[in-house]
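Bench notes, afternoon.
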Amino acid sequence: MKLPERFINESLARHWQVDETEESFERLMYHLEHKTNFKPYFEESINKLCFDSDKFKDGIIVADVGAGVCWTSAMLANHPSVKHVYAVDPSEQRLKHAESVLKHFKVPEDKVTLINGTFDKPNIPEKVDLVLLCGALHHCYDEDIPALFSNIKNLLTEEGMVLVANEHYVTPSWLVIRFLSFIKNFRRLKERGLSFTALRAPDQFGGEHWRIRKELEHIFSSCGFKANFFIHEGDLCKDKPRFYQRFGWKYYHAFLENITPCDIL
């Protein structure tokens, strides 16, 4: 599997560096609630889960894949309907700070298991009822998508589902802006080895992908999932939204229902 450079020996931004101090936790929460819409968007998505449905009456087990510092895992673990959360991330640095995040959220010690794993090797020991990909899918390279969803299918219980949260897709108008930007900066980009054939090549450092909605729908359907999209209002990174993000990005969450076996894209 191809792992983006940023997740190898990662140097974390200050707001992710949570330790035992209340100050560090307040800094994280300020980032999640005020500088961005990370927490409100995630809350909006999990509020649609209908934890009181018959499907979840016995409690659910969650796999949070790409959990980062585990603030999403903590929020789910504190829900009375959740029995256990497996929090998976490839960054050892993020998982190190996750232990403090869980303590600040007052998560019971036996409620979350931290796992150093990847999209193709999540290392989760049992079936789960919910797989969460929060701000994670756009880091997955196209060649690794089949392995990711094959693993998800193997992990899910018969009635399990996938929640893709805090994600974006780009619109055709964004593609026009991207093309014009390439023309304006052609000489500089050429020196970096980029060309017009790589208008939407993943960011080399972070692995970010810019997919249109039809591409996402194709990914989900090709891997045997029916997707139900919900669009958020506003900007995910509201403290400094760039023009092209306001103009050509749509922020969404989606619920994926398992319907057929996963095929290679």
